[in-house]
Structure formats: C-alpha cells, structure tokens
Amino acid sequence: MAHKNSNSSAVAAYAQAAIELAGDQATELGGEIADLAQLVSQDPMLKAFMVDPSIRLEERWGVLQRAFKGSSSPLFLNLLGVMCQKNRLALIHEIAIAYSQLLDVKLNRVRVEVTVARNLDEQELRDVKDRVSASLGKTAMVEQKIDDSIIGGLVLKVQGKVMDASVKAQLDAMRRQLLASRA
Q: How many alpha carbons fall within 13 Å on the CB side of residue 117?
C-alpha cells in the first residue's frame, strides 16, 4: 500500500513541478506529456523499454535523448531526464492525467461529456459549450458521445455530476410514476 501512496505522491510532485516550470508554455508541455503517454500506452515495446530493469539508465536516457532532442521542448526533455534518472518513466500516464487536471485549473477550464442520440452540428455543440461555460463560469471543454438509446435530449457529465435531460430518462420517470400510482 505504501508503494501506491509513494507513486501517487511522485505523480503529484512531477505534475506540479512541471506546470510551475512551464509558465506560458504549460499547454505545449501538456501536449508533449500527453503525446508520450499515448505512445507508451499504444506501443507495448515502448512501454517495456521504459520500465525494463535490464536496460541501464544511461542507455535508456541516451535513446530518449536521440528520440526527442530537436523535436521537443527543452523542458519536456529535462522532465524526461529527471524521470529516467529517478526510475519514474512508468508513471508517464498518471503524470499526464495529473498535469492535465492542473492545467485545467490553471486555465479555468472544465471537462464536459455530453451524450446525445445523434451527432450535434457545430452550432449545437457551440451552444452546449457556451451554456455550460456561462453556468459554471469556466471554459467548457466539450467531448461528445453518441448513444442512440437515450432517444433524444442529452446527458451532461461535469465534475462527477450527471444531468440527465434525455427522452429515455423522462420516459423512465413517467413509467415509475404510473407504476407507483397503480400500487
């Protein structure tokens, strides 16, 4: 259990240090971290390379430098170097998530998942974003999901809260009321 806590402490420390050092480049650094995390999650060989104890740290760092030098920011390269030196490369996915959350706070953003029965057009999506942004006083980052089982309307998920304004939910509520009145 202590191992997990030390990992979560390390994740928080790396994410916090990176966002503080990034300054005006926080968004770009976040993109670099997220891109590497995605690459690692998609490529089993890369994932194995990042954590294989039989690979010396100097050798791993040399490969990472050759791969990223010139195409990545110096701050990203320094972050990788520290993570490599401290044997923390396995935490890249968790660090990417923590960094993204800190960046959202820094930029006053909120992630919103909107589930609809059919794809919203650009104007409808912009309307959802504008209404949520105005309601919460934050910039809404909307991700659209399609689920034709909701029939119509929409379901919003924001900061762990769900607002279900779907036709399916309304029909279910009416059904419950009718069944309750029969009893």
A: 12
Residues 122 and 96 in one domain: no
Whole-number CA gyration radius for the chain:
22
Q: What is the dihedral of CA 91, 93, 99, 105, to 10 degrees?
A: -130
pTM of the full structure: 0.80
Residues 89 and 45: beta-carbon distance below 8 Å = no
For residue 140, list its beta bridge partners: 110
pLDDT digit string (tens) for 28-71?
Answer: 999 999 999 999 999 999 999 999 999 999 999 999 999 999 99
Tell me: do 117 and 78 sit in the same domain.
no
Contact between 155 and 115 (Cβ < 8 Å): yes
User: What range defines the domain where residue 154 resides?
Assistant: 109-182
Confidence of residue 6 (pLDDT cuts 50, 70, 90): low
Q: What is the DSSP string of 47-80?
A: HHHHH-TTS-HHHHHHHHHHHHTTTS-HHHHHHH
